[in-house]
Amino acid sequence: MNRFILLIILLTSLGGQAQNVRRCAYDAWFSQQYQHRRDYAEAILQVMSNRTSAQRGGGGGVVVLPIVFHVVYNTPEQNIPDEVIESQLEVLNEDFRRMNTNASDTRPEFLPVAADCEIEFALANVDPDGNPTSGITHTFTDRTGFSLDFFSATNTLDEVKQSSTGGVDAWDTDHYINVWVCNIEAGFLGQVFGLAYPPAGLDNWPAGSNAPNPALEGVVIHYTTAGRNNPQAGADGFDGNELGRTLVHELGHYLGLRHTWGDALPFFEDGCAVDDGMADTPNTAAGDQFACNLSSNSCETDIPGDLPDMIENYMDYSLDECLNLFTNDQKDHMRYVLFDLRPGLLDGVGIAEARALPQFRVYPNPVEDSFQIVFDRNVAGVVELRDMTGRMACSQSVEDRSVSFDATLLAPGVYFAGLCNSRLAPVRVVIQ
Predict the structure, then answer these.
(1) Number of domains in the chain
(2) 293 and 376 share one domain
(3) Using CA atoms, how far apart are residues 232 and 63, in angstroms rounded to an integer?
(4) Domain holding 427: CATH number?
């Protein structure tokens, strides 16, 4: 039997209704395996106790990853429109580049480690056969939905990834990120909202956590959680997940990140003694569980500089509106995964047009007196600087590879620099 860890987002109900809802199925899956296969449980505990920090690395600069969304539906409501997928893509690019509007909500103690991951996503425009594509497929299924059976020896939610079981086969998983959007039916643990496998070969994960075969790589999300303009948001009676961050969280898993509390196993481990392998995420006893509790310090110590729980981290479990950062170590780890374990995603297959776009960076950033926008090639156009509300702060024409700005004319704060009338994602600029 394949040994895997299921990475699930479960959301609490509207109106504070009492339900036995668990945000993540990791502990429940472990409990099932512990009962049926003691060697599996012991193997996980041994790996976790001997785990060392994962390798760091990866090249510099912004990388663009091809992504394809497979909408698998049984009813018109489940067949979410393309504009919802496009909204979801915007959320991904904002959050992974730290251009999210609520980045300003990051608490001061965590600002030094908040990272622009320099990872972007582009809808595939060429399919594996070389044909033009929108990067979004819609497939009718005669199944009312797909479910996760914790009493099964295999991951039954993987059935949405196979046409033979009513789903859709993946596109080449070495070169495309596959995301299946479907109706995940509530089951033993309540409503499951997402699932992803990490790659093989990571020492911050228990052995066997990866997908059982390459055709099952990718992410599954519940159709109500996609995008931030989804007409079906809340249709299943849950609230707090309507800003598209279910997929942000799951792609973190796909790129090798653990939950911030290290997935401590109830009744088996002290949560404060288990770590996610990232030095800049404070040890936490358990997930926030949608409390959005900014005062929580579940592993409080007398050590100077002791930090509270980082409930705003995308890899914690909190309300979408409270999540706002990845850390520097998480960034390094995800980029290591891309360059060393999922390098095919960097080949540009399916997004030649997107990868042909110029890239730029801001130097220095944060800014005190002045800064430059430096492109990787000659460009002609206008670089705009906008504040957090979208208001134009200033602009400069560029006719070669760089343009300079005088920051002394601007109020301190967070701005976004972008090339006018370009598909380039803007870059966050901090003026001190």
Answers:
(1) 2
(2) no
(3) 32
(4) 2.60.40.3080
Q: Does 380 share its domain with 338?
A: no
User: Which amino acid belongs to residue 200?
Assistant: A
Q: Is the alpha carbon torsion for 193, 265, 152, 13 positive or negative? A: negative
Q: How far apart are CA 417 and CA 388, in angstroms?
A: 11
Reported pTM: 0.77
Residue 215, CB half-sphere, CA atoms under 13 Å: how many?
A: 10
pLDDT per residue as tens, the chain (432 positions): 232 334 433 332 222 222 333 344 444 444 444 444 444 444 444 443 343 333 444 556 889 999 999 999 999 999 999 999 999 999 999 999 999 989 999 999 999 999 999 999 999 999 999 898 999 999 999 999 999 887 787 889 999 999 999 999 999 999 999 999 999 998 776 788 899 999 998 988 888 889 999 999 999 999 999 999 999 998 888 888 899 999 999 999 999 999 998 887 766 778 888 889 999 999 998 887 778 889 899 998 878 888 999 999 999 989 999 999 999 999 999 999 999 999 999 988 888 765 566 778 887 888 888 888 888 778 888 888 888 777 888 888 888 888 889 989 899 988 888 887 666 667 788 888
Last residue of a domain, one of 338, 356, 374: 356
DSSP string, 271-284: GGG---S-TTS---
Angle CA 245–249–250, to nearest 5: 115
CATH assignment of the domain containing 308: 3.40.390.10
Contact (CB, 8 A) for 14 and 240: no
| Residues 302 and 351 reside in one and the same domain | yes
Q: Using CA atoms, how far apart are residues 77 and 358, in angstroms rounded to an integer?
A: 39
Taking phi over 0 as left and psi of -120 to 50 as alpha, with beta for the rest, 390 belongs to: left
Helix (H, G, I), strand (E, B) or coil at 306: coil
CA–CA distance, 68 with 176 (Å, rounded to integer): 7
DSSP code, position 421: T
Same domain? For 155 and 258 the reply is yes
Question: 347 and 376 share a domain?
Answer: no
Name residue 149's beta-bridge partners.
none
Please identify, among 328, 356, 384, the residue that sits at the C-terminal boundary of a domain: 356
Distance separating alpha carbons of residues 235 and 154, to the nearest angstrom: 29
Prior bond of 364 cis (ω within 30°): yes
Alpha-carbon distance values, 42 to 24, 35, 69, 184 (Å): 21, 11, 37, 30
Q: Find how far residue 414's CA is from the centre of its chain.
A: 23
Catalytic residues: 250
Containing structural domain, residue 306: 1-356
Q: Which phi and psi (to 5°) does residue 322 adopt?
A: -95, -15
